[in-house]
Amino acid sequence: MIHERDELEKAFNKELFVIKNDLYYQQIDLSKNGKKELLRVDISYKPHSTLSGDTYSLRKTKDGRLVGFIADAMGKGLSAAMSAMAITRFLNYFFDELEEEEGFVFDVWIHKTLKFLQKNLFDEEIMSILLMEYNIQDSIVKYASCGMPTFFIISEAGEFQSIRSNNPPLSLFTDTVHVNTLPSIPISKMLCYTDGLSESLIANGKLYASCLKEDFSDSICVKDFRDKVAMRIGKGDDDLTYIYIQKLEVSEAFKVLRIQSTYEAIDEALQHVADYLKSYHVDSKTSSQIMLTLSELLLNALEHGSFGVDKARKNYLIESNLFDDEMVRLEKEHQKKKIKIVYGIIQSGKRELFEATISDQGEGFDTMVLKNIVINAEKFNGRGFVIIRKLLDHFYFNKKGNAITIQKFITPALEL
After folding, report:
1. pLDDT greater than 60 at residue 56
2. Which of the residue ranges 47-61, 202-216, 370-384 would you say has the lowest mean pLDDT?
3. Rounded to an integer, what distance in angstroms lies between the CA atom of residue 65 and that of residue 276?
4. What b/e sequence results for 204-237 when a residue is b if at least 16 CB atoms lie within 10 Å of its CB, and e otherwise?
5. Nearest alpha carbon to residue 360 among 321, 391, 401, 395
6. Domain for residue 137, yes or no?
7. Is residue 83 in some structural domain?
8. In the structure, what pLDDT confidence band is assigned to residue 78 with cuts at 50, 70 and 90?
9. Rg for the chain (alpha carbons), in Å?
10. Do both 222 and 244 map to the same domain?
């Protein structure tokens, strides 16, 4: 029995490895009319059993377009999981091929997908799949939805769109796939999902589809939406997979601190944030969790960012009892480097969300290593990441890896 569990766990980790996500815990910095915007793309992938017929991938082209798919292979167990893994491998492989040659072309990707499935599906098999290209700068969405549930878009003006499937599910006998382009509108939020989400039952026996639109519209961030889903359907009745996209401006009401790279300046900044939280009457436990996280992150920004001390060197200095003296020396050398802290509370309905961004002038790090949190969370090292994941609701890095945005609700999830 133990051996069987180990084999299933290996198979699931293989699924996670095959899936590609170019934006693990990463947000994209944008600019609109001189104002900074943030694009956040979060994916929830929760198989009902170890082997899943659901799959997805999210890729970013060299010219900045987001390309992705979310799919649901017919059936359950090993057969569905094998089909899901096969299409995932192919779509990611051919995406890379296009990028290496003349650049990604959505219609070619679609055509090759159809050709692949025609040769690899059994007579009775079907595949529901949504393939999409999102041109962020021009706010243009191209899609081919084959037997998938309606996906949602909310514009910056608050207009809600439900986009229905424009193709039947794919099968061995499918000979063409239609691609549609949506009129260009500034997108505030988007939600794509498999039917495991919409067809799970809520407390009154109805399908979650009956209140999915409402929960999505009312959510202020992905964690808020996840809380609503959990309260409605718990773990659900099937695989739960959805992609939650949000674009937003940094609030002008947020506080901004630009501090020197010194330990004293960090202490003063932490006191400013503590006073701010106190003015909002944030409870002591939540306030302590925020302050502990900020303290850790600011020290990381100072020592790793401003001072350029990597983990290996820090461990050596500590073991050699040289750390304190070296930090004093580096502080004198680098104190003119700036660390920026932007923080504030977002209010929506009865929930309040604390958000803060810490950025330094260091070299950052390769954020793709964060995939290891998803595949082997228990083996992922790093005190900072352990604290962040334990104490906060969510976090995002920028592409360079020298800025992090953290989120923590200061009010509990609402009963639905």
Report:
1. yes
2. 370-384
3. 38
4. eeebbbebbbebbeebbbbbbbbbbbeebbeebe
5. 401
6. yes
7. yes
8. confident
9. 23
10. yes
User: In the structure encoding, which two tokens stand for residue 19, read together?
Assistant: 């899936």
pLDDT score at 102: 87
What CATH code is carried by the domain that includes residue 277?
3.30.565.10
Residue 414, domain member (yes or no): no
Query: What average pLDDT does the segment 318-322 reach?
Result: 93
Asked if 142 contacts 132 with a C-beta cutoff of 8 angstroms, the reply is yes
Residues 152 and 287 in one domain: no
Buried b (16+ CB within 10 A) or exposed e, 128-147: bbbbbbbbbeebbbbbbbbb
The confidence score (pLDDT) of residue 375 equals: 59
User: Residue 219 has what pLDDT?
Assistant: 95
Cα dist from 90 to 83, 96, 120, whole Å: 11, 10, 11
For 293, what's the count of Cα atoms within 13 Å in the CB-facing half-sphere?
Answer: 27
pLDDT at 1 over 80: no
Instruction: Please name every residue paired with 354 in a beta bridge, in sequence order, or none if there are none.
Output: 345, 408
Place of tokens 């601190």: 257
d(CA 198, CA 402): 38
Which token pair is 103? 């650049």
Provide the token pair at 389.
Answer: 């994941």
User: Quick count: other Cβ atoms within 10 Å of Cβ 175?
Assistant: 6
